[in-house]
Amino acid sequence: MINQIEQNILNLLQHLYDELGWFGVTIIMIVENSTGIAPSEVVLALAGWMLIDAHSLPFSTVFLGGLFAAFGSVMGASILYWAARLGGRPVVERVTHFFRIDLRHMQRVERLAEKHGTRFIFFGRLIPGIRMLIAIPAGLTRMPYLTFAIATFLGAYLWCTVFISIGYFLGHEWHLISNIVKQIGPYAFGIAVFFTGIFFIWRRWQRQKLETVKLEIE
Prior knowledge:
Oligomer: single chain
Number of helices: 9
Strand content: under 5%
Low-confidence stretches: none
Distance between the termini: 62 Å
Largest sheet: none
Number of domains: 1
Helix content: over 70%
């Protein structure tokens, strides 16, 4: 079942790339950055394989492909930016509910954006789980759109170029990589959950310790 789904996805992307080339990547990145439903890592890596390596194009094509992908990222992120800026918090709450995003996670992203500003927009583009969300606090805080777009483009270009490069070098080994991921995926997920739990327990302990110190001082 999983293998059939995987093959269908590969066939769909191959058809899209054959018909539209890099514009197909731009379209997918618009969808990914505005909804989060398209795994950009896979899409970009396959683009590096199907659009560059499979056609025996030089490695320098990776940097051109990064431009198409980054422009799509900016356009997709801009949808969320303007939705948050024009619609305010009611729209944000509906978006988080629709995509089943934990509101507390969204609030943490907002605090980071308020604290670090443009730097967070740039580096946030490189963090899975935050990449899509950073456009929302940028819109809520009414960050100048040009500043937001430039920071988003630079961060997205770095992210996209890296994964297109991975596809260029390793895409032809897709089936081997896929089998390895299927084997180690559950273990990697379990380890990630374990360390995430340890981190939150440590944070909770630190807060309790700090509150105890404050009470003693008072």
